[in-house]
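Title: Prediction job returns without error message
Component: structure pipeline
Severity: low
Priority: P3
Assignee: unassigned

Description:
Job completed but the reporter wants confirmation the result is attached to the right record. Sequence as submitted:
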Amino acid sequence: MTIPQAKKYIKETYGEAKHNISSLVKACRKTAKKYKIDAYDVFFLMIENKPIDALYTHSYGFHTSNGRQLIEETSNHYYQIERAK
């Protein structure tokens, strides 16, 4: 996943972003690397709440403990990157 791809997707789908997309992509990459999954999957979990079947992130439309952990970890990475700026 590249930063321009993410910016283009968010702009075309939702309009102007309020958060730093560059930091979001970096956070998604970091989480994806740890769990050996695709950064796109983490990105869409964060942006659209799309399930990651391989990690069982949702059950009956609700987050499982795995899903909550991935979201929290990615959010923490995002804020760490933002604070480092």
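Comment from assignee: result matches the submitted record. The chain has one domain: 3-84.
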